[in-house]
Description:
Layout: H1 12-44, H2 51-75, H3 79-100, H4 108-128, H5 131-136
Amino acid sequence: MATTAPAHLGDPRTQEAFGTVRKCITLFGAVSAIVLGVVAVMACTGHEVTAFLWIRGAVLLAIAPLVHRMAVRASEGSFKAFDRVRTLSTVMPIAIVGVDLIPGLCPAWYAVLQGLSALAMAGVAVLTRGPVLCAAFPTTK
C-alpha cells in the first residue's frame, strides 16, 4: 500500500519536531547503553547482577534503533510508522516505570537510570501528540 506524503510534512517546523523526536530516541538508546554498560562493569567487579538486569537492559537497548528507524520513516511520510512511534512512546515509559516500582526487582540506581530513559520516551509521546506532528498526519476516514 503506497503512502501519500501529507501536505504539512515539508513544513520546517514539522521536520524540526521529527528531528527532536529522533534526538529523544537517541537519548533513550544512549541511556540504555549506559545501563547495560554499568551492569557489565558491576558483573566484572564481582557485584551481584541478576539475569533480569541483563535481559531488560539488552532488550531496551535493542528496541532503540528500531524505534529510531520508525521515526525516520514517519518523517518521510509513513503514517503507520508514526502511529507505532506514538503508541510505543506512550506505553514504554509507563511499562518501564511500572516494572521499576516492583519491590526488590531491581536496585535503585537501575530504576533511576531506566527512569531517565523513560523520560526521553515520554518526550517523544508529547511531541507525537503535539499540534505540529498531528497536523502532518491529518486523520481522514
